[in-house]
Amino acid sequence: MAEQLKEDLAAVIAEMEKTVAEFPENVMAQHHLGLVYMKAGRIEEAIACLRKAIELDPQSTESMINLGAIYFGQGQLKMAEDLNKKALSVSPRAAQAYANLGLIAQQNNELDIAIEHYQKAISIDATLATVWLNLTSVLTMKGDDERALEAAQKGLELDSESPLAHNNLAVALYFSERYAEAQKHMEKARELGYSVDPNFVASLQEKLA
């Protein structure tokens, strides 16, 4: 199955490369080839295509956001931040750009700024499950247990099979002193393949003893 997927992806890349070679000024062709390169792990080629797309169309919000995601993955947070801010200057209601800025602020331990960005993202698109999960983590770190629990419940509602959603809800329930419910979601997170923090497991078991 894995080999088949690789072959299929290689075929898609070959076809899209032909299109880009024939129409090098086509913004969407450059953008989509960049995304496929990302999926294939060909990062430098993905960067080149997304940069070209932005060069061809300075309004290409999606290219900016995706290029920012690559830089974030490389730890180049300032470049990622600049690209997402540029995307917002073009499309002020780009929810994913706000979500990404929240993640960057969280990485920089700027928790209040992260919360502000996450809240802005979900005010635009409340269906972004990952944003609710990230917001849960930051609110938990801030000790805002009530809001963390609300965010965790919303995240799980949007993605009931997410191991991280179950883990985050378990932690939020723990801090709300709802230990039996926390254990249920902790076990579900494990069942779904999440590596639950052993210290959290020990602390929860102590509370349940």
Automatic annotation (TrEMBL):
<feature type="repeat" description="TPR">
    <location>
        <begin position="61"/>
        <end position="94"/>
    </location>
</feature>
<feature type="repeat" description="TPR">
    <location>
        <begin position="95"/>
        <end position="128"/>
    </location>
</feature>
<dbReference type="InterPro" id="IPR011990">
    <property type="entry name" value="TPR-like_helical_dom_sf"/>
</dbReference>
<feature type="repeat" description="TPR">
    <location>
        <begin position="129"/>
        <end position="162"/>
    </location>
</feature>
<dbReference type="InterPro" id="IPR019734">
    <property type="entry name" value="TPR_rpt"/>
</dbReference>
<protein>
    <recommendedName>
        <fullName>Tetratricopeptide repeat protein</fullName>
    </recommendedName>
</protein>
<keyword id="KW-0677">Repeat</keyword>
<feature type="repeat" description="TPR">
    <location>
        <begin position="27"/>
        <end position="60"/>
    </location>
</feature>
<dbReference type="Pfam" id="PF13414">
    <property type="entry name" value="TPR_11"/>
</dbReference>
<dbReference type="Pfam" id="PF00515">
    <property type="entry name" value="TPR_1"/>
</dbReference>
<dbReference type="InterPro" id="IPR051685">
    <property type="entry name" value="Ycf3/AcsC/BcsC/TPR_MFPF"/>
</dbReference>
<dbReference type="Pfam" id="PF13432">
    <property type="entry name" value="TPR_16"/>
</dbReference>
<keyword id="KW-0802">TPR repeat</keyword>
